Structure formats: structure tokens, C-alpha cells
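Duplicate of earlier report; TetR/AcrR family transcriptional regulator input re-posted below.
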Amino acid sequence: MTTGPGRPRLTSQRRPGQTTPEEILDAAGELFTTKGFAATSTRQIAEMVGIRQASLYHHFPNKEEILVALLEETVSPALAAAGRLADAAAPATVRLHALATYDVTQLTATTWNLGALYLLPELLTDRFEPFRAQRTLLRRHYRQLADQALTEITDDSGDTSPALTDLPFRIVESAIATRADIERGLLPGPENEGAAGLLADACLRALGWTKPMDEIRAKSRALLAETAGGTPLRL
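Output:
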């Protein structure tokens, strides 16, 4: 992605964003999630931004690179949060709840439901291997925290089922489908009202947590504030 000035604009600013690449990503995010990736052209994206198609290529060489940048937005913040939480001095149950809270918040607070792009067949190609590797690493963080949380919940350090330790990651990503149903009018909204806390609670419940959640929620919020690392947490 190039952040240089490019050619002069055709019109005044039409899309939110402090830079032209940000405006391009916003327009592409809308088109990819509402029209479909294959059905969207770079010309259509440029027209929504109010720039020439050639100017778009100054910032992104092709449509695939725009998708790469959008996908990066969905996983990098959660991966950074997972890294900070991995070393935090808190029980694994609290750290898992905090990561889930943060991750669901990011997935539901964006303007467009970018997580819905995860199912695109194009993501199976070599160009998107870095994104797949990032998502796999995030999933591994969830599994490690789930395994540690299970030991705290059950007081059992024996081997646990991979299917069980994978549940928190799957529960968190269910926010993507829920948001899509809300946007189609199939479920009441808004999609992010209480979703982060409810799904974070569900991650622990799935592992066998039966106690009240109030204390876990309070410690989770405090931990997120402590481990922000200079990055604003949109909670």
C-alpha cells in the first residue's frame, strides 16, 4: 500500500478516512461485503471514492491487495492484544475473557462486517497465506489460553480435547455471522450491544465455568485497560 499523494482528486472527499488509502479501504469494505468481492471492480471502488482508477493503482496495485489490507484490519489488533495478554499477571480465565471481549468488540465495531470475507474462496490462494498464518496464530493463542483456563476451572492438568479448546475461538467468530443476520434483518440489533461481554462469558461457560461472571468481567475490563499498550481499546 502506498500513502503518497497520487493524482489530483476528481471530487471533494466522499468517504471517511484521513488519507486516500483509508477512503479506498472504506469504499472497498462496503462493496466487498454488500456486493461481493468477485462482482466489485477497482473502477467501482475509485468512483465511490471520487478518484481516477489510475489514482487508485497508485495506492493499491490490484483488488487483491485491497482485500489483503482489509483482512489485516480484522486480525492484527486481536493478535497484538493476545500477545500482550499472554504475559499478563492474571489467571488464564481472566485473560481469555479479556481477549474474547476485545476481539468481539473489534469484529462488531467496524463500519463494515469485514469478518464475513473470511469465507471467500480467493483466500485459499497463495497470496493470502500471510493472513491465514496470522489467523492460525490467533487461534493458537485462544487454544493455549483455553487449555490453561481448563486447568484452573477443573483442577485437571490432563490432556484436553482440541475440539474443546477450540470452542472459544469459534464462539468469538460467531459474532461475524450474528452481525450478518442482524444486518439482513433476521435478528434484532444493534449487533454490538452487549455482544462482547456475552460471547466472552460463553467462552468460559463452554469450558465448564459455573460461577457468577461479575468478578471475571470486572477483572477482564481492568486487565484490558492495563494492557492497552498505547493502543486505544474500543470497548
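The CA atoms of residues 201 and 213 lie 7 Å apart.

Merging into the original ticket.
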